[in-house]
Amino acid sequence: MKALVVRLSAIGDVVHTLPALAALHRHGWETGWIVEPPARPLLEGNPSLSRLWPAPPARWSAWGVAHRVLADVRAKEYDVALDFQGLWKSATWARLTGAGRVVGMSREWRREPGSSVLLGESAEPPPGITHVIDENLALLRPVGIDEIGAREFPLPASAPERQTISRALSALGIERFAILNPAGGWPGKLWRAESFGAVARGLRDRGLPSLVTWGPGEEALADRVVAASGDAARRAPPTTLMEYVELARRARLVVAGDTGPLHLACAVGAPVVALFGPTDPARNGPFSAADVVVRPPSIEAAPRGGRYRVEGAVMDEISVEQVLAAIDRRLAPDGTAAHAV
Question: pTM of the entire structure?
């Protein structure tokens, strides 16, 4: 049997779909994936995939590329296309692949509800499901796979990334370190750079130097954190996506908001303190019981439920003292960390 995964973006969403890919592979499915360029490195050379199909940008000038990709995909004659994204563009890709079945979440579970008209079959998570990983796993139930609760992330380490990160850390003279990742997908999820700098000073007092990680266009933000740290933090060397994965594997701690680097750190089992404001950690947050989530007091006291919370300056409510207390809980040797503070 052959299945096509349609999850175009973003990095965190692709990470959260990897357990579904692993489940398909374990059950003997030959699996392909359509993905946009930014997240493609997470899937290239993945032993759980037989084919990786590039999704070109959604503009008229890319139609020729899209047509060629679709022709190749249709020739593969997939038995089922699984729309994990719930958008018009993902549903369109799934419908045009020519797969025998087109399966996606039902209307009320989709980010763009109207796109459900392009599906052939729909699914819903069973009662009590909250995390997006389990929502994705529930999409496999129509094809006879029920592995809700699975947390396997096929992100194999490779020798080049290991060597690159080893050389970079050796050049910095660092073995034990924490990662601070101050960036995020949109402003409402960001914690102040000055606060991250203060956390770096607190980590230094605890004997742990910090590396501030960054992506394209985030250099200035990383430099602000370093400047606020009083030499307690250093800007991390530039990394590819998979080099960051290797860096996270070696970190003693990762402090970050709701963004791709956080989800990658969770996937490789790094100890995590996660800072959540407008988004719901029950749906998108860490899944290890040992990890700690810090929330603004006004949101933590609000009623639970819903995928997204209102955007605003709520992240400013999180204090440095809260985060340092969460770090102490996460790094406690007796394993007494609480999941949320």
Answer: 0.92
Which candidate, 315, 298, 9, places its Cα nearest to that of 187? Answer: 315
> What percentage of residues in the chain have a pLDDT greater than 70?
92
Question: Would 150 be classed as within a structural domain?
Answer: no
Question: Domain span at residue 72?
Answer: 2-143
Pairing state of beta strands 51-54 and 30-35?
Answer: parallel
CATH code of the domain containing 268: 3.40.50.2000
* 335 within domain boundaries: no
Residue 278, domain member (yes or no): yes
| 260, 244 Cβ separation under 8 angstroms | no
Distance CA 105, CA 113 (A): 9
Instruction: Decide which of 85, 108, 143 is a domain's last residue.
Output: 143
Helix (H) or strand (E) holding 228: helix 219-228
* Cβ–Cβ < 8 Å for 179, 42: no
Take residue 40 and report the two structure tokens written for it.
């493609």
Q: Give residue-wise pLDDT tens across range 216-253.
A: 999 999 999 999 999 999 999 999 999 999 999 999 99
